[in-house]
Amino acid sequence: MGKVTAKFSDGEDTIRPDRNRSLERGIEILRAFKPGSDLLGNGELAERTGLSRATVSRLAQTLVDTGMLEHDRRRRAYRLAAPVLSLSHAMRSGSPVLNIASPLMRKEAEQRKINVGLAIADRGEMVYLESVRYSHRVAWRNVVAGQRVPIELTSLGRAWLSVAPEDLKRMLCSQFQKRRPAAWKTLERELKAAEESIRTHGYCWASWQPQVVALATPIVVIDQPVYVLNMSVTSEAAPQDIVDRLGQPLLNLAHRLRDLIQHL
User: Fold this and answer.
1) Other beta carbons within 10 Å of 49
2) Three-state DSSP class for 95?
3) Which of 3, 13, 103, 125 is the most exposed place for a label (fewest CB within 10 A)?
4) What pLDDT, in 10s, does the model give residues 124-177?
5) What is the pLDDT of residues 45-63, one digit of tens each?
6) Residue 207 to residues 7, 44, 49, 68, 152: CA-CA distances in angstroms?
7) Is 94:64 a contact under the CB 8 Å cutoff?
8) Which residues does residue 119 pair with via DSSP β-bridges, in sequence order?
9) Cα–Cα dist 36/1, whole Å
10) How many CA atoms lie within 13 A of 186 on its CB side?
11) Positions in the chain whose pLDDT score sits under 50
12) How buried is 231 (Cβ within 10 angstroms: 0-12 exposed, 13-18 middle, 19+ buried)?
């Protein structure tokens, strides 16, 4: 893959003099809200952020005053407010990468009757920027933009990890080991195999959900975050047959996107 010159986040709360701690803590409170955790009280926010209850109470009230959170007085808890959704829409509609990638991804999904996704890393997870899901059932859609998946289990995450700097990779692998101690030896072997597959073939694959095989490849562009493109399909066919069928189309689309992103 060559030397990586793209942007990577260290994923840590490194204290620097040019960073505003109050702002960082406020963002940590917003980050605590995830699907299935739509209503959080001061205690839960304190536990998830590592902040004191007094700090959480003060910052949460500021976020309520600025419209980012709603306060449910009866339940004594907070939920994300509508302006957060508008920020997400503004990001997606204003992203030059998504503006060029989405039509190409949709065309590929429709022609090959597959799922095509684009994601970036955020701490220990991958975040879908776009997900085009093919299905005969038009209304069926179980992966959407903004959804998070674990780095260590998915082809998306393993492809990203294969080009990450060694110090960042070690830090994340330490987190994965603590998160999944019983499965770590197997996971470690799979991560190494994925890295070797990226070096040899340009992509890796994983099947962490029943009957779903997904291939992924990193898109490395200077001064850009590392994007990861994947293709997946739900099938009872042998995984290797799917890998053989989708490997080259995945690389072809990734190469085209890389060229377009380089000229933005």
Assistant:
1) 20
2) coil
3) 3
4) 999 999 999 876 554 444 578 889 999 999 999 999 999 999 999 999 999 999
5) 999 999 999 999 999 999 9
6) 28, 33, 32, 37, 12
7) no
8) 128, 228
9) 38
10) 6
11) 1-4, 13, 138-141
12) buried
* Residue 203 CB neighbours (<10 A): 25
CB atoms within 10 A of CB 52: 11
Looking at residue 148, its amino acid is: R
C-alpha distances in angstroms, 6 versus 149, 217, 263? 22, 15, 15
CB 122 within 8 A of CB 172: no
pTM of the model: 0.89
Please report, as a single letter, which amino acid is at residue 195.
E
Number of residues written out for the chain: 264
